[in-house]
Specification:
This protein is an alpha/beta fold. The protein has 5 helices and 7 strands, in the order βαβαβαββαββα. It has helices spanning 25-36, 55-62, 77-86, 130-138, 174-198; strands at 14-20, 41-48, 66-68, 91-94, 111-115, 143-150, 160-167.
Length: 206
């Protein structure tokens, strides 16, 4: 099976592949949002970069086929996209994916990521998870949040689709700031997906 052309006006649900490296909370939240909000999409394949990623257990519980691709070098990402093509996926969403991807030309504009800061602040190599929240606190920021963006061949660099802001409080620790940002992510990712599927936003090369 080859990758289907995404059609915002089609009655067929858009087929999504989801990439993760960790626990898969974003996977489960997106899966629930698709069902609860009747988003015209389905998550049809989960790919993990680690065989022990607990997100694979979530995928099993949700009944989603899954694979492991270690993707230790950006160039080896072609194997991931071949698997996505074979599964008929039209879009790829990253949630806690920690490997750099080399995006094939045919997939540019079809890959989304969610990052736990207000890009371009606190993005780039090594900026993931608690490392991001620590940088926000160290910088004395008044606000943090999350950014959903299109993925290109650079870390946290592609065009931003939307952002959700949250306040940074004087008493914040990494843990409670992370939880507040994650609550924003649960809103932002489904909203961004709807915007992309409807054609409201489209990828434009910088």
């Amino acid at each position: 099976m080859t990758r289907k052309e995404a059609n915002p006006m089609s009655a067929e649900p858009a087929s999504i592949g989801f990439l993760l490296s960790g626990g898969g909370r974003s996977l489960e939240n997106l899966h629930q949002a698709i069902e609860q909000r009747s988003i015209a999409a389905s998550i049809d394949l989960v790919i993990a970069s680690r065989p022990k990623a607990s997100g694979l257990e979530r995928a099993t519980r949700l009944g989603i086929p899954h694979q492991v691709h270690r993707c230790k070098e950006p160039q080896s990402a072609h194997q991931i996209f071949e698997s996505l093509d074979a599964a008929g996926c039209q879009w790829v969403l990253l949630g806690g994916w920690l490997r750099k991807l080399e995006i094939p030309a045919r997939w540019l504009g079809k890959v989304l990521n969610i990052h736990p800061s207000l890009l371009p602040l606190h993005g780039g190599k090594g900026c993931y998870g608690d490392h991001v929240h620590q940088r926000v606190l160290d910088a004395g920021e008044s606000f943090s949040g999350c950014s959903v963006h299109f993925v290109d061949d650079h870390y946290d660099h592609g065009p931003v689709i939307l952002q959700q802001r949250v306040p940074v409080l004087a008493e914040d620790t990494i843990e409670n700031l992370a939880q507040r940002v994650f609550e924003a992510e649960k809103i932002a990712y489904p909203q961004a997906l709807e915007m992309v599927l409807s054609g409201e936003v489209k990828f434009e090369r910088r």
